[in-house]
GTP-binding protein (Aliikangiella coralliicola), 166 residues
Amino acid sequence: MISKKICMVGAFAVGKTSLVRQFVESIFDEKYHTTIGVKIDKRQVSVKDKMVQLMLWDIEGVDVFTEFKPSYLRGASGVIIVADSTRPKTIEVAKQIKHEVELTLSNAQFLLLINKSDLAAKWQPTENDLIHLDIDSNNIFNTSAKTGSNVEKAFRRIAELVLDTQ
Ligand code: GDP
């Protein structure tokens, strides 16, 4: 079976861990977990008649922006950048992170998730944000790790993207 490494990146508390839990275990937890360390979860999805094992790398309880380590990204085929629809600043962090990731990974596929869509959204990406991020609109999703909205769809999309570029 094909196995692909996917890294979750984004500002503190945007919902990286919660999105992975929703996708892998169909669980949502309001509690904030501050365990430090890298957690690797996996789930298989079938895409275009092929099974793909997604290895989902998540740094728990760490501000990925300040703690960014190129070694975390090594070997990743896909990067899921997460922002928080209630905190406009998280899109600025997303832009900076994308830039940093590109210094380490040259062929990665990117997804942008604007998470917490179950809460009242305070912002949407501007055209300028999208130009800076350079992520196709097909690869941007408003998600909720709480209700599960678009979560399955988004992870399936990254599976599709990394499969196409193997
Ligand atoms: P991380 O630091 O990016 O991994 O963020 P977490 O997954 O730990 O989530 C941070 C906080 O936001 C936790 O209290 C979660 O319960 C909450 N949270 C995460 N995703 C959502 C969501 O889609 N909707 C709501 N309402 N809360 C969320």
Observations:
- DSSP finds five helices and six strands in the chain.
- Residues 10, 12-18, 29-30, 32-33, 115-116, 118-119, 144-146 surround guanosine-5'-diphosphate (CB under 6 Å).
- The chain has a mean pLDDT of 90.
- The radius of gyration is 14 Å.
